[in-house]
Specification:
The complex is a heterodimer of chains A (about 575) and B (about 500).
Chain A: H1 2-20, E1 27-30, E2 36-41, E3 47-54, H2 68-75, H3 88-117, H4 132-151, H5 156-163, E4 167-173, E5 178-185, H6 189-201, H7 208-224, H8 229-239, H9 261-271, E6 277-283, H10 287-297, E7 322-328, E8 333-340, H11 347-358, H12 364-372, E9 376-384, E10 390-398, H13 404-420, H14 425-441, H15 446-459, H16 464-473, H17 477-487, E11 493-500, H18 519-532, H19 536-552, H20 555-577
Parallel strand pairs in A: 2-6, 7-11
Antiparallel strand pairs in A: 1-2, 3-5, 3-6, 4-5, 8-10, 8-11, 9-10
Helix pairs in contact in A: 1-14, 3-4, 6-10, 11-17, 12-13, 13-17, 18-20, 19-20
Chain B: H1 2-13, E1 47-49, E2 55-60, E3 66-73, H2 87-97, H3 105-114, E4 118-123, E5 128-135, H4 139-151, H5 157-172, H6 178-191, H7 203-208, H8 211-221, E6 227-233, H9 237-248, E7 271-276, E8 281-291, H10 298-310, H11 316-324, E9 331-334, E10 343-352, H12 356-372, H13 377-389, H14 398-411, H15 413-416, H16 420-429, H17 433-443, E11 450-455, H18 457-462, E12 479-481
Parallel strand pairs in B: 2-6, 7-11, 7-12
Antiparallel strand pairs in B: 1-2, 3-5, 3-6, 4-5, 8-10, 8-11, 9-10
Helix pairs in contact in B: 2-8, 10-17, 11-12, 12-17, 13-16
Classes of the chains: A alpha+beta (about 575), B alpha+beta (about 500).
Chain lengths: ~575, ~500
């Protein structure tokens, strides 16, 4: 009673607070070449955070050049005619000559792919199996790389920023966008303008082929040599059936080494045109000065001849649930994804509220599955809103001894509850209070605000930084229930269950340590059934049968049977205790 | 048509400032910048020695209606009793997560969540922390909860059981990711099996931890005389000081001052240590004994490391391993400077199995080169400028300012060198090319090099047909099998 009264007061208090919440007073301009400019002066630290978003991501690619948007993100640090080389004329000659050799290498790569299809080469990435012709061309190419190195000024772009106090310089590529950013001392705004406009106006893609290798190492690091990287990539590709979100941002392993410089040039001309870019500055500057500098520097980049095409392929409606059951070097886990609408759709706010109701330590998944039924040790939920299409995701890690099917059922039961009963007012208010406080927390520093503006602009509307708050506050219990019923359906669902790969480092139960990889899955299956078995009678009969069998078994099977007997006896003892 | 309209509109609005593109210089060096004067804030201006015991840094910031308080605690994993490894971490986690005298854990969590407040606690190697971030309107209630958590945590049994289960399951993942294995074995090789860094929790130590252990650990160390406080946000400084006095007054137990942090490290014998783990990319770390942060050579060592591999794309290791050869995505070096004892120098990268040996040889070459030859003027200037020009970022927010000062108080730097930040830029600026070479010679002693490799041993040892360098030949030719450890006992697994 008391607590109810109190929370009512709090609702009122928060209401006045959100009314006080500042709008982020962004000033929007459009330069003469179509580039958009978002400015937010803030004078509490002597820096300017500057970044730009290109409205191109892996969703704009096609099979054969997957990973090209991300490769660009790397190439944009390679310099210009004046930055990065001592002799631009010679540099161009060498780059052209490199392309000539690369054309020959590409022919040979096609030949090697044929040999691979016919089973004459086992692994295209193994240097021992490359053809003599290919190795010879490679040696030729290496000579050209060495010649170019003579006139290179290594990473000069980075060096100039570093020497001038630039920090946090980086870039990222997603399915939707490519984003570049840095923070500079407040007196170096003109340097920022010079550098960014220079690399956009006349980038030189030197060291293109070494950089492809770097990207391949990045793929190995992030995806191929991590415990769940490959299986997550597969689940993602399975989830998106027709949509170009299907392939990974880093690209397929066959495509990364096959991307040509010519393809890169075409991609650049189309997508890096100023009308496809938005620049964001947050920090200690004057709006008039920044605008004039932007027009002078960024405005000199000619408008692109063509407009970037829309992504036309829509995700096809799923006719039935899709499942992936795999194993990996990890604790068992369950992951469920549903298709939900794209950024800008009104239902995404109710879905975000729903995700918050399910997630966090006081959310329903943790309370229901970690604290109450103890089927999981961790649980999560999120609405992942993207530009062209979104997804809703729940999942968790199993408690030892529980089965994926138990966690899956538990997760789905929590979803059923929100579909059938309205979320109580106080629970909804708790979530909204956190969104309201987040309105302040997001304003922590220049860099954080710049990132938020770049992200929202990339999604399609920077004003979201001010508009999301009120929209989230307006979500009702009925909205939450409706979106759960609309999107979180069986036929719209994808389920991945991952269990620990048998054999290596599988010491999750010391009793199973001595078993062979062939025996392990059988024991695990047995243990799973044992958990379900509730009849002491039946278990005792089973135990008797095993004792008879063990008299006849050989040494190897003896150990196997001993484990089964031990576990059965333990289960009987457990049931009898209850 | 449309486009012309936009153009003319812009031309009007910025006409007054519109300079022509012809003024744009060819090179950025020709640009002129207005002066930027920055003086670091003075710690004394925010420092308050509370009557209740702790020193606090009180930094008001009225921009947003938020308050952030962080309490650093003199405790750490190094105080784990033998056989109860993991106790410090468990106490640290459950302090905020296990309820308090008047509130069950569930009720405390629910209330905090409703207020959109975040209360967290943790204990790491040599430090504990309890922090609260909340809306300033909730200060009374928030501080009451904070006081109760600090003085009378409940350490609820079911929360202890759950945390044990979560920790046990995390333990089972110890050998799953090559990066985790690398991280762990680095510390074994660079500090020795007996060093406090390497006293890992095991299934047995976890099992032995009881609620009584948590209560005893808490009462022993979580006392105001072991606290340093950082607080920033929406308040008046004197009002906040009064609040802090109240927060720490009349502590219900006395506690102890912890013993000094151990310094008895043992650096491994030179060699290449290989952990066999089936992945298609080898992870490599090259290590040397390292430096302590109050060493007079520390600034020169920072500049040297930045040129060698600490400075990202501007550094030599990145240039050669990544940009030249395309052998790795991330490659670089670190020379952290320990607070209580030297921390190791390390250089690290990841490369496909077959090029591990070649890339390692390049990194070794660069390490030797920076000790053998002086760096260029341009390298020195670039690096020094970077340290000097990015210096204001240390104090970029009020939270960062309060945090930096509290950390100095906690680690003793403020007492020892109160003008550290004031003199920071001058000291960096004084570093010469000769200094850089001298410290490289002194600290980058290639004959002591320990190289850790985690990856598919068989493939890595094959090397690459184009680069006939052998891993065995590096670091004195000593190749050692570093066995994986059993994740639940941390004993080296039999081969």
């Amino acid at each position: 009673m008391n607590s109810k009264l109190f929370s009512l007061c709090l609702v009122l208090a928060l209401f006045t607070l959100s009314a006080r919440a500042q709008q982020v007073p962004v000033i929007e301009k459009t330069l003469s070449n179509g580039m958009r400019l978002l400015l937010l002066p803030r004078h509490d630290e002597p820096t300017v955070a500057g970044g730009w978003v290109v409205h191109v991501g892996s969703a704009n690619e096609r099979p054969g050049i997957t990973g090209i948007a991300h490769l660009f993100e790397h190439m944009m640090f390679k310099g210009t005619p004046t930055l990065g080389t001592k002799d631009f004329k010679k540099d161009v000659e060498i780059i052209n000559e490199q392309e000539r050799v690369r054309d020959l290498m590409r022919k040979e790569e096609a030949n090697m792919r044929t040999l691979w299809r016919r089973g004459q080469i086992a692994d295209l990435q193994n240097p021992d199996t490359w053809t003599a012709r290919y190795k010879e061309l490679q040696a030729q190419f290496k000579k050209l790389v060495d010649a170019q190195r003579e006139i290179l000024v290594k990473n000069e772009f980075d060096r100039i920023y570093t020497a001038n106090g630039g920090s946090m310089m980086n870039a990222y590529t997603s399915h939707d966008v490519t984003v570049y950013f840095i923070t500079v001392p407040a007196n170096k705004l003109e340097l920022w303008m010079w550098m960014e406009s220079e690399r956009l106006l006349r980038p030189v893609f030197r060291e293109f082929y070494a950089e492809r290798d770097v990207v391949f190492e990045e793929r190995r690091m992030r995806t191929e040599s991590t415990p769940t990287g490959r299986i997550e990539e597969t689940f993602w590709a399975m989830f998106w059936e027709s949509h170009p979100y299907s392939w990974p941002v880093v690209g397929w392993p066959s495509d990364i080494p096959a991307i040509t410089k010519k393809q890169a040039d075409e991609f650049y001309a189309l997508y890096y045109a100023p009308q496809n870019l938005t620049t964001v500055l947050v920090g200690d500057f004057k709006v008039e000065e920044a605008t004039a500098l932007a027009e002078k520097y960024l405005g000199r980049i000619p408008r692109g001849k063509e407009e970037a095409p829309d992504v036309v392929t829509l995700e096809i409606k799923q006719p039935a649930e899709k499942r992936l059951d795999g194993d990996a070097d990890t604790n068992p886990q369950v992951d469920i994804m549903w298709h939900t609408p794209a950024f800008g759709h009104p239902d995404t706010y109710a879905l975000s509220v729903l995700a918050q109701i399910l997630s966090t330590r006081t959310g329903r998944l943790y309370k229901g599955l970690v604290l109450s039924s103890k089927v999981a040790t961790q649980a999560y939920a999120q609405q992942h809103t993207m530009r062209w299409a979104s997804l809703f995701n729940v999942g968790g890690e199993l408690t030892d001894g529980k089965l994926p099917v138990e966690l899956e059922a538990g997760l789905l039961a929590e979803i059923e509850k929100v579909k059938t009963v309205d979320v109580p007012a106080e629970e909804l208010q708790k979530v909204k209070n956190n969104f309201a406080a987040g309105e302040y927390r997001k304003l922590a520093n220049n860099h954080a605000i710049m990132q938020a503006l770049l992200r929202y602009d990339g999604l399609g509307r920077w004003q979201e930084i001010n508009e999301a708050g009120p929209k989230l506050q307006a979500v009702t219990a009925a909205d939450v229930r409706r979106v759960a019923n609309t999107y979180l359906t069986k036929e719209n669902r994808n389920v991945a269950t991952i269990v620990r790969k048998a054999g290596k480092s599988a010491s999750d139960d010391p009793d199973l340590a001595g078993l062979s990889p062939q025996q392990l899955p059988a024991v695990r299956q047995f243990l799973g059934r044992l958990k379900e078995q509730k009849s002491v009678e039946q278990l005792k009969t089973q135990l008797k049968q095993m004792e008879e069998q063990s008299g006849r078994a050989d040494a190897k099977n003896q150990q196997f049977l001993n484990i089964l007997k031990k576990k059965t006896a333990e289960r009987i003892a457990e049931l009898e205790r209850k | 048509m449309n486009q012309t309209q936009i153009t003319s509109l812009i031309a009007c609005s910025v006409a007054a400032f519109c300079a022509r593109a012809a003024d744009i210089p060819n090179r950025p060096e020709m640009l002129k910048y207005p002066a930027l004067n920055f003086s670091p804030p003075d710690a004394k201006q925010f420092r308050v020695a509370l009557k209740a015991g702790p020193v606090a840094y009180v930094v008001p910031d009225r921009e947003l209606p938020l308050v952030n308080i962080s309490i650093l605690v003199r405790t750490g994993d190094y105080l784990d009793p033998a056989g109860k490894e993991g106790l410090a971490g468990m106490t640290g986690y459950l302090l905020a997560r296990g309820g308090s005298a008047s509130k069950r854990a569930e009720d405390l969590e629910e209330r905090l969540a409703f207020l959109a407040a975040s209360l967290n606690s943790a204990v790491s190697d040599t430090q504990g922390s309890v922090s609260l971030n909340l809306l300033s309107k909730d200060l009374d209630e928030g501080f009451a909860m904070l006081r109760e958590v600090l003085t009378a945590p409940r350490f609820q049994d079911d929360k202890l059981a759950l945390r044990k289960q979560q920790s046990l399951q995390a333990m089972k993942q110890r050998n799953d990711d090559a990066a985790d294995i690398e991280q762990r074995e680095r510390r074994f090789l660079a500090y020795g099996d007996g060093f406090y860094f390497n006293r890992h929790s095991t299934q047995a130590s976890l099992d032995s931890i009881t609620r009584a252990d948590l209560e005893a650990f808490h009462k022993r160390w979580f006392h105001p005389k072991n606290f340093v406080v950082a607080v920033n946000g929406d308040f008046d400084a004197s009002a906040m000081t009064a609040r802090l006095e109240k927060l720490f007054a009349a502590w219900p137990f006395t506690g102890e001052v912890p013993p000094p942090i151990p310094t008895d490290r043992k650096f491994a014998a030179p060699g290449v240590y290989v952990v066999d783990k089936e992945v298609n990319q080898g992870r490599v770390t090259l290590m040397l004994p390292g430096i302590q942060r109050d060493d007079p050579d520390y600034q020169a060592a920072q500049v040297m490391n930045d040129i060698l591999g600490g400075g990202g794309f501007t550094s030599r290791i990145m240039n050669r391993v990544r940009s030249d050869e395309g052998l790795a995505y991330s490659a670089g070096s670190g020379f952290p400077g320990g607070v209580y004892h030297p921390m190791s120098f390390l250089a690290a990268f990841q490369s496909k199995s077959r090029t591990v040996a070649y890339a390692t040889s390049i990194v070794l070459e660069e390490i030797k080169k920076i000790a053998a030859e002086t760096v260029t003027d341009e390298e020195l200037t670039t690096t020094k400028n970077q340290f000097i020009e990015t210096f204001p970022r240390t104090f970029m927010t009020k939270g960062a300012t309060a945090g930096a000062f509290a950390s100095d108080e906690f680690t003793g730097r403020f007492a020892k060198d109160p003008d550290y930040w004031k003199n920071y830029r001058t000291k960096i600026d004084a570093v010469t090319k000769a200094d850089v070479q001298r410290v490289a010679k002194k600290f980058l002693t290639a004959d002591k090099m320990v190289i850790l490799v985690v990856g598919t041993k068989e493939e890595i040892l094959k090397g690459h047909p184009d680069h006939p360098v052998k891993l065995e030949s590096l670091a004195g030719g000593r190749l050692v099998d570093q066995p994986l450890r059993d994740p639940l006992t941390m004993k080296p697994a039999a081969k």
